[in-house]
Amino acid sequence: MTYLLRYGLPGLLAFLLFLLLQAPASLVTEQLAKRLPGFRVQTVEGTATDGSAESVAWRSVRLDRLQWTWRPLALFTGWLEFHLQVDDPEIQFSGNAAVDASRHIRLQKLVGRLLLSKFAVLARQPQLPLQGVMEFDRLDFHLNPAGQPSSASGMIRVLDLKLTLGQPLMLGDFTAQVNSTDLKGIQGVVKDNHAPLMLEGNFSLQPDGRYRFNGQAAIRDTENRALRRAMNLLGPPDGDGRWTLSFSGVLSR
After folding, report:
1. What Rg, from alpha-carbon coordinates, does the chain have?
2. The pTM of the whole model exceeds 0.70
3. Beta pairing partners, 205
4. What are 209-248's pLDDT values in tens digits?
5. How many CB atoms lie within 10 A of CB 48?
């Protein structure tokens, strides 16, 4: 028995690893289709550990090409991890994605950019009356087994943000510094970057979808009448020309 364990078990593990390395890439896309309703691809190439898919679609968002590469060393920390690379004219994205035995999901070192409208669709907020471009700068993100966000850290930039209620209204560029200290939700600080709309505040997003934002806003150029009319819909500003903002609600699932 000792002989079998000493020499047979490593051989069996080596054989299983060989099978995994030779498994077709379709094994990965089939598993994604089971967990992501509506996920589909047109062409799959390579192996389960080093493959690619073309014409990827999910929640009406389409990607020209998705590539993945297995990161075997992550197994020593209890995670099955892949490096992902998205190539598409509208979405540029790279980073590491991992899942553990409890079905927690970890996204690390996310770098890229995409249209805010695409992000809104992926986040199940397709009616969001905003346009712009989102950029991620080494963002880390954790999801619980139910697929809800539990923590995040890193920088998110929103460029050329426009309000699209009626005639498009330019709001400017903004940054969100995200820094969660536990797995009970996401917290962050938002600030404008010399935008027409001066903005600073704090936000939180709980794993159950509850969100809250508290902050203050003002108009950088007092001659910007269109922006002033829009802000006046929130009521008159205080004596310093600032509006106090307080929003809360629940994101749809």
Report:
1. 22
2. yes
3. 186, 211
4. 888 999 999 999 989 999 999 999 899 999 999 999 998 9
5. 21
